[in-house]
Every structure is written in C-alpha cells, then in structure tokens.
Design a protein that fits this description.
The chain is mainly beta and about 375 residues long. It has one domain: Beta-galactosidase, Chain A, domain 5 (Distorted Sandwich). Helix content is about 5%, strand content about 35%. It contains 3 helices and 29 strands. Strands 10-11-12-13-29-23-22-17-20 form a 9-stranded antiparallel β-sheet, with no helix packed on it. It has a 6-stranded antiparallel β-sheet with strand order 16-27-24-21-18-19, with no helix packed on it. The chain is globular and about 60 Å long. Bound molecules: 2-acetamido-2-deoxy-beta-D-glucopyranose (4 copies). One 2-acetamido-2-deoxy-beta-D-glucopyranose binds next to strand 12 and strand 13. One 2-acetamido-2-deoxy-beta-D-glucopyranose binds next to loops.
C-alpha cells in the first residue's frame, strides 16, 4: 500500500500482518468504542479490556433509546470488579472440578498423572476453577478491525491459567437495522486444549423505565433438561427433567414466580440444555430458531436470543454496585435481583464428565466457533 497523508493509521497496520495492531496507540484498553445501526435502532459500546460490552441502547415502547445492561460509567472499575460483567469469558467458562482435567478426558483425572492439567482454584474456597481464573474477560484485547457497525478484538492466550498451548481468539461484534447485535467468536489452538466460551451478559430491560429488579421480566427458554450440580456448582453427571419445577421456562414464566411459589427457593444459577428443534437447524452458525426470550411489560422491550451453543446459564444476580448515571447512579445501586445473566455456553465441566460425550477438546485441526445473535423489538 502506498503511504498517503490521508491513509488512516489503522489501514496501514491492517496491511502489515495477519493480526494487525489497529489500535496500539489510538485505543486504551478502557476506551469505549461505539457502533450503531444505520436505522438508529441499536447502539453498543465495547472496550478492549475483556472485549466487554459496556452499554447497549435499544428502543423502548416510547421510542426512546435506553441502556439495558448494567455496568460502570468509569470503565476502570471493570478492572477490579469480580462480577464478570458483560465480558468474553474463556478459555474455559464456568467451573472446572478441582481445577483439574486430562487430555484425553477421564472421569477422575489423577492429579499427578500424565497429560493432567491444573487451573487456578479461585472458587468455593479452592474447590474449583471459575471462569478460568484470570480469564479472557479480565485481560486486555486488541482492536483489529473497526467500522461504523462492527468491531473486532483479538487476544493471544499463551498457556495462561495452566491450560496447554496457545489459543488465538477473535470476537466480532456487529449491529444491524431492526435492533440486531451479533457476536461471533473464533479460536484456533496450537495444540490440544479444552475450549468452552461464553459471553457473560447481564440484562435488565427496564432499568431506565423505573424497574429495580427483574422479577417481573418474563423469560422463555426452550429447554426440557438442566444440568444437576452439587453444593460447589459442579455437575453430578445427572440431567434433570425441568417439568413442574422453577426451571421450566418452556411456556414462559416470570423470573420472580418461583420465589412466590416456594419461600425456600434460593434463586437461579443453572445451566439448561436447549432442546433440539426440527426446523431451522443448521450444521454450523446460528439457526433461525429462537432459544431464549426475555421481555419486560414495563419497557415493552423483548430480547430474542439465537445461538449455536448447546446450553445456557441463567444467573439471577444482585450486583450491589453503584449504577451508571443513566440508571440513576451513582447514589442508587444495582440492588437485589436487579439483573439476570444469560450466558450461551457448552455443557459445563464436560471435560470431567466423559459420559456426556461432549467433545470440548480443540486442536490445530479443529477450530472453535461460537455465535450468538440478540434481536431487540418492542412488543407492546
Ligand atoms: C475512575 O476510577 C479510577 C479508579 O477508581 C479513578 O482513579 C479515576 O479517577 C476515575 N475517573 C473518573 C473520571 O472519575
Ligand atoms: C485436587 O487437585 C490437587 C492439585 O491441584 C490435588 O493435590 C488433589 O489431590 C486433587 N483432589 C482430588 C480429590 O482429586
Ligand atoms: C489492561 O489495561 C489497563 C489499562 O491500561 C491496565 O490498567 C491493566 O493493568 C491491564 N490489564 C492487564 C491484565 O494487563
Ligand atoms: C496465532 O497468531 C500468531 C500471529 O499471527 C501466529 O503466528 C500463530 O501461528 C497463531 N497461532 C494459532 C494457534 O493460530
């Protein structure tokens, strides 16, 4: 490429390497990059720290753009916060029993056996690994591509947190007319390694319309089974039929209904397995089948989620953090059950549950892909 006074710096970088460093000088990891759909129906902000979604503006029933994700106005607070707010989590999301796995996987890996790996024991008093230790959501990524409607981030994970080999991972965020946000994650590994990724997005669709909690949000999830877990949130290996339980969202139910039905109900932090559907399935990528919906009568906003992932974690959270100014902060906090995390993911800790036959080991011959599409609309 010929150097020209008018050539933007990032285009010069883009021509130099497979993974150009678009932003080395122009973007700090905590700077917000905003993308917007041409029709003005959706605007999303991201930062390179954690490849994090910092804000997500969609239209409510009054036609006003409102931010439907919690977070901080001062992005440096993400660096010290432990709630994984809206970040891209890897190399292995959710828990790993005793922070131990083997390749090939085995039911009870011997701690000092061959091809056994240990990840940080950062959860439940050292009983397991959560979100890889210091995972991808707590690391700085690099902007490698940018347009008015799309931004792409890159990380090179060089055997971090005890995992084997190097993983190059990119995440691309794009917005489209009619309220669409797509997230696409692609990873390549230098040697055999587990990869299981999620995007840890918390939602409250009516924070700017006066809601303090999400208990009246209606959720629908097309899943008839959930993964049973023990007291450390580690899978027992059993799958449980959700029929007649608080986890049966198939016909749609309010997130708060279970607390009214059962005074001892503690809340949601569970992985459900999506049912396979007869229509719209594709071999790869996102099908036309909606997997999960979340809606609020107060704002009139409905979120439809399509994903190529087999499972979803539902985590009803009380963040207890100062709100963004648009949400009434910083005096006011995101309080009790103020938000729900909806995480598209693989079967949790399948690397210690061989009986499930989930192949989560990736290699130079087997790249990893994760695709999710959020579509926002006004229902009433
Ligand atoms: C953001 O937070 C950091 C860390 O607490 C603080 O040092 C900085 O002054 C804050 N920035 C603003 C603009 O408030
Ligand atoms: C858990 O892993 C540690 C090594 O990180 C090992 O010393 C210990 O024996 C393991 N516990 C079990 C029950 O396998
Ligand atoms: C990421 O970048 C921020 C801002 O420059 C810095 O404070 C932080 O230490 C970096 N984090 C890591 C894990 O390198
Ligand atoms: C990761 O990217 C680097 C830099 O482009 C490249 O040299 C390396 O081969 C890549 N590794 C994998 C596993 O894709």
């Amino acid at each position: 490429m010929r150097f020209s006074f008018y050539t933007p710096a990032y285009l010069l970088f883009a021509s130099l390497a497979a993974f150009p460093v678009l932003s080395a000088t122009s973007f700090s990891p905590l700077d917000i990059t905003t993308i917007a759909a041409p029709d003005g129906s959706i605007k999303a902000g991201f930062m390179a720290f954690g490849a994090t979604l910092t804000k997500l503006l969609v239209k409510n029933k009054h036609g006003k753009l409102v931010d439907v994700v919690p977070g901080f106005d001062n992005t440096s607070h993400w660096v010290t916060d432990g709630n994984h707010i809206n970040g891209c989590i890897g190399r292995y999301a959710n828990r790993i029993k005793n922070g131990t796995f083997s390749i090939p996987i085995t039911k009870y890996p011997q701690p000092d056996g061959p091809n056994v790996y240990h990840t940080p024991l950062n959860d439940h008093n050292g009983e397991d690994t959560l979100h890889s230790g210091v995972g991808w959501d707590l690391r700085n990524w690099t902007v490698v591509d940018l347009s008015a409607t799309s931004v792409k981030y890159l990380r090179i994970d060089d055997a971090e947190n005890g995992f084997p080999g190097i993983v190059n991972v990119t995440v691309t965020y794009s917005v489209e007319d009619r309220g669409v946000l797509s997230m696409s994650i692609h990873a390549t590994a230098s040697e055999k390694t587990p990869i299981m990724v999620t995007h840890h997005d918390y939602f409250n669709l009516c924070l700017q319309d006066g809601c303090d909690d999400v208990l009246e949000h209606k959720m629908q999830i097309f899943a008839s089974r959930r993964i049973e877990v023990d007291g450390d949130a580690i899978p027992t290996g059993n799958l449980v039929d959700v029929s007649g339980t608080p986890y049966d969202f198939r016909a749609g139910r309010a997130l708060g209904a279970a607390f009214e039905e059962d005074r001892d109900f503690l809340g949601y932090d569970n992985a459900l397995i999506y049912d396979k559907s007869e229509t719209g399935e594709k071999k790869s990528g996102v099908s036309n089948v909606v997997r999960t919906t979340l809606s609020s009568d107060v704002s009139g906003i409905q979120l439809d989620i399509r994903s190529d992932q087999p499972a979803v974690q539902v985590y009803l959270a009380s963040l207890n953090l100062p709100r963004k100014e648009v949400h009434g902060g910083p005096e006011k906090k995101y309080g009790d059950r103020s938000t729900v995390a909806i995480e598209q993911e693989g079967w949790i800790d399948a690397i210690n549950t061989p009986e499930w036959n989930q192949n989560q080991i990736y290699s130079p011959e087997r790249p990893f892909n994760w695709n999710t599409v959020y579509t926002f609309s006004v229902v009433r």
